[in-house]
From TrEMBL:
NCBIfam families: asp_carb_tr, PRK00856.1
GO terms under biological process: 'de novo' pyrimidine nucleobase biosynthetic process; 'de novo' UMP biosynthetic process; amino acid metabolic process
Quaternary structure and interacting proteins, as annotated: Heterododecamer (2C3:3R2) of six catalytic PyrB chains organized as two trimers (C3), and six regulatory PyrI chains organized as three dimers (R2).
Protein name: Aspartate carbamoyltransferase
Coiled coil feature spans: none
Gene that this sequence comes from: pyrB
Function: Catalyzes the condensation of carbamoyl phosphate and aspartate to form carbamoyl aspartate and inorganic phosphate, the committed step in the de novo pyrimidine nucleotide biosynthesis pathway.
Amino acid sequence: GQSILSAQQFSPQDLAEILETSRRLEGLLGSKKNLKLLDDYILATLFFEPSTRTRLSFEAAMHRLGGRVISTVGVQFSSLAKGETLFDTLKMVESYSDICAIRHSVEGASSLAARSIKIPVINAGDGAGEHPTQGLLDLYTIHRHGYLERAKTSVAFVGDIKFGRTIHSLIQLLSHYGVHMVFIAPNELQLPQKYADLLDKAGVSYEKTEDIEALRSVNVGYITRIQEERFTDHREYERFKDAYIVDRELIGRCREDIIVMHPLPRLSEVATDLDSHRSAVYFEQANNGLYVRMALILGLLQVELP
Ligand code: CP
């Protein structure tokens, strides 16, 4: 079956359909807790790296659709800990479930999975590669705030642009909407060439800077954590971990209509004094993951909303 491996695979038409279905599901969930659309289906969640939002929202999405979930969390609790290969693990998952979501520290792990088994595979984060379903819920959030359709929207990405897989996915999705992008990061954590090439090919206008003051001119600020788990030299991480702090004072000097996003989890880079500020949409963003993941599961299993 069809899988979700990279943000690159979505056409503008696909994206329009996902946004529309997510919106409909958001409406339906207002009055119903179980849509009873996936009676006989099983989702397997295979998370070999830590997660709160992605795994729980995928599982909640499956339950809200009336389906069932089986799960293995952490390498130590699967037979991978006994030396079983990922391939053999996946062959089991293929026979026990109809669709699976996988998070793994190795870039390309979900693509390998999709080549190995016949059921649809969802990339729920592959190392410093991509996190396409996060990119889609980010896109939905930007859309719900009216910025996707507006001319001259500008989006700033702040923090760890090198290792931030959510950024790698979201910029590819946003490349279809004519938004201007600003990449704010220490030079060492700037946009990898691979993604710069994709943006160039798509004709996206963008700029790179180390200066957090560049946040002041944009409509959307997408802040990210410095990804400690991806650094081979821990001293490097220590050097960058507090590179940027976005707080009420800084946002007070930004555009009146700015929205502040963050894929979460956050450390110090978004101050908690911003949580009650009008601009803060990061918890709403995480909440949107439920509707978007419901839409994606339905699409992959080719089950239509009535
Ligand atoms: N945004 C995100 O992927 O969060 P989790 O790591 O908690 O799933």
